[in-house]
Design brief:
Helix content is about 35%, strand content about 25%. It has helices at about 5-15, 25-35, 45-65, 105-120, 155-160, 210; strands spanning about 65-70, 75-80, 85, 90-95, 125-130, 135-145, 165-170, 170-175, 180-185, 190-195, 195-200, 205. The strands form three sheets. A six-stranded mixed beta sheet has the order 1-5-6-4-3-2, with helices on one face.
């Protein structure tokens, strides 16, 4: 891996100047929220602005016909602190996420973009938004992975270490050269099928001071 090229490519993806079919809408909304500014490093500031972001999201979704009127609750299969999961068909699931793990909605969309770059086999496609009981949820589609064995977390650690992500504590990792944090990789968020690891629920964060720094 050419580290300089990788970082440059990631910066272009986050900036919205490089896209794929999965990423175009995600990038458009992230840029809409940022007003062309780079991500702020101040989590406190982000939390204070999250309600404003939500209002902007709803406005964007309304103008672009991206609001779901209903969700088929009969296809519900599981839920966690951050999301609800529904079966779409044999090959896909639909996830509703309210970005509770993120200081800002922009951080959530950046996490989706980073997941799509590093783990293309479980890429997220943003479909729209859903409003329920004063909560706003992003509606994303993802490949359905049916695990056939338990995940060995030592294999997860080895795989990530080989790709520059060093274990910092528990199931959290950091790539210092890229300035990217990857958290919460327990055995329910990384599944194993045919001896292949599938990262189905990733939580990425950017360390802005490192991520935007040029590599000499």
């Amino acid at each position: 891996m050419n580290l300089q090229n990788t970082k440059y490519e990631l910066q272009n993806i986050i900036s919205g100047t490089s896209s794929s079919s999965h990423d175009a809408l995600i990038q458009a909304i992230a840029n809409y929220l940022s007003n062309g500014k780079r991500t702020s490093p101040m989590a406190k500031e982000k939390h204070q602005n999250k309600a404003k972001e939500t209002s902007k999201l709803i406005q964007f979704a309304t103008l672009n016909n991206l609001l779901f009127e209903t969700i088929d609750t009969q296809k519900f299969i599981s839920s966690g602190a951050e999301q609800k999961v529904f079966i779409k068909d044999e090959f896909h699931v639909i996830k509703l996420n309210d970005a509770i793990y993120y200081a800002s909605w922009q951080d959530y969309f950046y996490s989706l973009l980073l997941n799509n770059y590093f783990f293309a086999d479980t890429a997220y496609q943003l479909l729209g938004f859903y409003l329920e009981e004063n909560n706003c949820y992003a509606v994303v589609e993802q490949a359905f992975v049916r695990a056939d064995s338990l995940t060995d977390l030592t294999q997860v650690k080895t795989f990530l270490n080989n790709n520059g992500f060093i274990n910092t504590r528990n199931n959290d990792y950091y790539n210092a050269e890229l300035g990217i944090i990857l958290e919460d990789l327990h055995d329910e968020n990384v599944l194993t099928k045919n001896n292949i690891l599938y990262f189905i629920d990733t939580v990425f964060y950017i360390n802005p001071s490192e991520f935007w720094k040029e590599i000499n």
